[in-house]
Q: What sequence folds into this?
């Protein structure tokens, strides 16, 4: 069966056929010939092809590095002028002098470059050295493939760039290699280049940026008066990263666990979040709740920013219940409408800040602990999409203190006491984020591990008391940020408890107490019938020494 063809397709096919036959004819009469003429054509074609490749690479390089290109053109034109002038009959000095100058010109050009832009020159030289060392590093870190003919292919180093405090290697996988291999080799590469740490960032499929840090520390950062544009719960600026960029943290849609030994700087994280969101709190799109089980020492400083706070375990349970009521209401209002809550001043994003989670979850009375555990589990599992997020700070990340570690998709590990604790908080990310190695003299420094598992070292901004007071005064929370009243009947948490036949203090609200209850009926028990004497087998008498 023939397919109908349009006149256009027919023309194109005819043209293609002619081009193909012309190419075949040209090949046959040039490089396809088997005699010496064919050989000459092949050599000429090879030279033309190499020329074309060189010109293309040179053009691309010139377009990328226009400054040295312009400089080179100016110098060449200058030389041409001098050489023209030197063509004076009888002059025996200018020619050799110019030849010497031409011989020395690369050094002169580089020297001028080093004089004009010394920092840039040093970076170029450093990048060049790192690139020269790369094949050896790649081979020793198993980033190579050996062909049967003995050739060795290593992962390609695309380019080396410098950022403040880091050198970034852009590395490309070769066919047959996966980015995972590069991820695994990253610690060895960092060690080969004597780097203080590393971060791996995927750029595109098969291409990764490996940042090697030239400094171990991030200098302290002071917080400043926040502005409304910065108060973005999707990308909240909280400090500086090792590359000197502003480190951002996602607050909306993420629960965050902050773990750090005493004096590690959990206060800086706490205030970077609440203080950073202060303008949004003031305009009503964020509502802050606080549990400070150190008796309010931390949160009272900025009390005006919070809608509701609790400083005792009993009050904390009430606050958690109130948050559950928010979740219950949102569930009803968002059902079938949206799957991720968008904060507005009528329906704000609720951020619960807990300072010292272990006081509530591990060191309180059994009943309180059980109730807190139940409410926290519900808030952590249901709150995220409904616009209720939790930021919990804890000193001791061990199991009994933070049983719900896995319910926090985002983790911040400040200085920790041991590698076991780093492992507990960060899981597999601890390999790239050794929080136990953070120095005591660097409070506020920690690893921020987002949902994707890639850790970033951050120095959280330091919030002095005066600034917290000033921010609280300027951006006080609106009066409407009071906790919602309980609806008639039990809230969802209590319904859940009732379903599980567990009693909570709240289940008993409004129910008759034991004083109202009728006296319990006492059952008169019949006296037990006397036991029948047991029929026992006759005991075997112990053997006497004579019998043995
Ligand atoms: N980002 C920071 N930059 C510089 N210094 C900081 C920073 N954060 C905290 N500090 C210093 O470290 C000290 C301890 O900080 P902070 O009270 O926040 O620690 P913490 O982890 O909350 O300790 P604890 O759990 O014992 O209360 C502060 O008094 C301050 O001097």
A:
């Amino acid at each position: 069966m023939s397919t109908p063809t349009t006149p256009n397709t027919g023309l194109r096919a005819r043209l293609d056929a002619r081009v193909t036959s012309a190419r075949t004819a040209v090949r046959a009469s040039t490089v396809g010939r088997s005699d010496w003429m064919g050989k000459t054509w092949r050599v000429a074609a090879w030279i033309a092809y190499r020329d074309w490749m060189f010109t293309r690479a040179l053009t691309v390089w010139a377009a990328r590095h226009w400054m040295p290109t312009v400089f080179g053109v100016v110098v060449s034109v200058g030389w041409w002028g001098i050489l023209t002038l030197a063509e004076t009959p009888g002059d025996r000095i200018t020619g050799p002098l110019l030849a010497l100058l031409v011989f020395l010109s690369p050094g002169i050009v580089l020297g001028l470059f080093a004089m004009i832009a010394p920092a840039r020159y040093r970076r170029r030289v450093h990048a060049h050295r790192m690139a020269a060392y790369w094949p050896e590093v790649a081979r020793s870190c198993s980033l190579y493939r050996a062909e049967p003919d003995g050739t060795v292919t290593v992962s390609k180093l695309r380019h080396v760039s410098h950022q403040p405090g880091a050198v970034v290697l852009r590395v490309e996988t070769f066919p047959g290699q996966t980015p995972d291999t590069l991820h695994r080799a990253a610690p060895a590469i960092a060690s080969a280049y004597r780097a203080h740490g590393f971060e791996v960032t995927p750029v595109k499929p098969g291409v990764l940026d490996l940042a090697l840090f030239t400094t171990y520390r991030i200098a302290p950062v002071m917080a400043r008066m926040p502005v409304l544009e910065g108060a973005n719960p999707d990308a909240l600026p909280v400090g500086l990263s090792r590359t000197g960029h502003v480190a951002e943290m996602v607050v909306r849609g993420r629960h965050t666990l902050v773990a750090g030994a005493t004096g590690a700087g959990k206060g800086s994280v706490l205030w970077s979040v609440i203080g950073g969101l202060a303008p949004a709190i003031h305009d009503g799109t964020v509502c802050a709740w606080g549990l400070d089980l150190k008796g309010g020492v931390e949160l009272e400083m900025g009390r005006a920013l919070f809608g509701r706070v609790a400083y005792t375990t009993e009050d904390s349970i009430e606050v958690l219940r109130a948050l559950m009521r928010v979740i219950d209401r949102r569930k009803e209002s968002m059902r079938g409408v949206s799957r991720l809550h968008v904060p507005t001043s009528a329906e704000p994003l609720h951020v619960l800040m807990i300072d010292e989670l272990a006081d509530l979850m591990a060191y309180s009375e059994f009943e309180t602990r059980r109730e807190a555990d139940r409410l926290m589990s519900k808030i952590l599992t249901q709150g995220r999409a409904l616009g209720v997020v939790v930021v919990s700070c804890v000193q001791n990340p061990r199991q009994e203190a933070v049983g719900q570690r896995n319910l926090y998709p985002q983790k911040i590990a400040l200085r920790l006491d041991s590698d076991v604790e780093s492992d507990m908080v960060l899981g597999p990310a601890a390999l790239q984020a050794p929080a136990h190695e953070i120095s005591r003299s660097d409070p506020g420094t920690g690893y921020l591990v987002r949902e994707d598992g890639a850790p970033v070292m951050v120095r959280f901004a330091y919030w002095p008391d005066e600034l917290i007071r000033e921010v609280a005064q300027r951006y006080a929370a609106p009066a409407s940020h009071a906790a919602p009243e309980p609806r008639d009947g039990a809230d969802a948490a209590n319904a859940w408890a009732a379903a599980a036949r567990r009693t909570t203090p709240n289940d008993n609200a409004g129910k008759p107490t034991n004083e109202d209850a009728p006296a319990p009926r006492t059952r008169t028990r019949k006296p037990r019938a006397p036991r029948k004497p047991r029929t026992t087998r006759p005991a075997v008498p112990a053997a006497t020494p004579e019998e043995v």
